[in-house]
Specification:
By secondary structure, this protein is of the alpha+beta class. The protein has eight helices and eight strands, in the order ααααααααββββββββ. 41% of the residues lie in helices and 21% in strands.
Length: 249
């Protein structure tokens, strides 16, 4: 079936993942010929999918299996999280409405699992603590991405980083994601800010590609800022903003 132009803007992630039928794929390919934003977004999703696939294809060090197996005995198994039947939407509509949040959640999960895989010296207690922290982060991110009032804004920082902010008034939280973020350099870190009527309030630190939940109250914030600051951050920006992106309303 044919889609309106407003619908086509939501299909970039599904297109990159090969989840469109033939008619939808042809319609989207025709759409991106005249829509630079969707063309760029589809390319970014394709690159992310390729990076995730490449990470999965790499064989982990042999020592990791022994450590994970040894830690299993000390980690309590949690029951599966089964949503209520009334809360489960049709798969087609869910894919179209949540294409961007799904891709962000996949990136968060990949980063968490990758971080666990490379730490070969942690004992079972440390692994359990890290798992709990990771689960807490995933829960917070997922709550924002799945919120019915979630709003998404995209931006590009002065250093070339591609950014996305998903905010929810219902959750009173916002999630920031960065891709292609250059290394901040020795003794430096990137700091996030919430702009409240011209007053910049610290909202967290980020020093590499990934996703973080912004600290502070985004409810009355008009924009999200990004600056390069000394390690540990600053109470106020000390450099010109690399990004000042208006929050979606």
């Amino acid at each position: 079936m044919n889609h309106h132009a407003t619908d086509a803007h939501t299909l970039a992630a599904a297109y990159a993942l090969g989840a469109l039928d033939d008619t939808e794929r042809k319609d989207f390919e025709a759409h991106v010929q005249a829509c630079e934003a969707c063309r760029q977004e589809a390319a970014e999703f394709e690159a992310t999918a390729a990076r995730l696939a490449g990470a999965v294809s790499q064989t982990p060090p042999a020592a990791d299996k022994a450590q994970v197996m040894a830690a299993i005995d000390g980690v309590r198994q949690l029951p599966p999280r089964v949503p209520a039947p009334s809360a489960v939407p049709a798969i087609g509509g869910f894919l179209r409405r949540r294409a961007v949040p799904l891709a962000l959640a996949a990136s968060v999960a990949a980063a968490v699992l990758g971080g666990v895989a490379v730490r070969q010296t942690q004992n079972g207690q440390e692994l359990e603590q890290r798992a709990r922290q990771s689960q807490k982060q995933l829960d917070a991110v997922s709550a924002v991405l799945a919120a019915p009032d979630a709003r998404t804004a995209h931006g590009k920082a002065a250093n070339g980083a591609l950014t996305t902010v998903v905010s929810s008034e219902q959750q009173n939280q916002a999630v920031f994601t960065a891709a292609n973020l250059p290394a901040p350099g020795t003794g430096k870190t990137y700091q996030l800010w919430l702009d409240h009527d011209g007053t910049m309030r610290p909202a967290g630190l980020i020093d590499h590609d990934g996703t973080v939940v912004l600290a502070g109250n985004p409810a009355d914030a008009g924009a999200v800022g990004l600056t390069l600051e000394p390690s540990g951050g600053s109470p106020q920006p000390t450099t010109d903003p690399l990004l000042l992106m208006a929050l979606s309303t």
